[in-house]
Amino acid sequence: QVQLVESGGGSVQAGGSLKLSCVGSLYTSTYCMAWFRQAPGKEREGVASIDSDGDIRLSDSVKDRFTISQDSAKNTLYLQMSSLKPEDTAVYYCAANRHCVADLRSFVYMYWGQGTQVTVSS
To answer: What is the DSSP letter of 99?
Structure first.
């Protein structure tokens, strides 16, 4: 059973930065992995994805502000978030699956973490 555990969420003022981490009970270098977010009353949205070839996809809403990376030695996925805006407020989820390419569609992913809250105040 694959387990994903997110951390690093919190409250920050607009313009600030946060770095989320996702530790997995898997070899992150052999999976495609992604960050999603879900704000109250909204659908889950794909934010960033990376696959085993290192290909990356970022949503248009974050591509100039967020960076996705992974440390294979630590089986950890990261999301560096900068220039945060109030509209970035959401629960952020880590997701993973095998045999896939970087993708921002939620149905691609089989394994999900419990989420970490990010709150950005104006």
So the answer is: S
End-to-end CA distance of the chain: 40
Cβ-based neighbours of 114, under 8 Å, separated by 6 or more? 5, 6, 93
Tokens at 23, concatenated: 């530790």
pLDDT per residue as tens digits for the range 8-43 = 999 999 999 999 999 988 776 778 999 999 999 999
Residue 47: Cβ-neighbour burial (10 angstroms; 0-12, 13-18, 19+):
buried
Interval 34-69: pLDDT, tens: 999 999 999 999 999 999 899 999 999 999 999 999
- Between CA 57 and CA 48 the distance in angstroms is 6
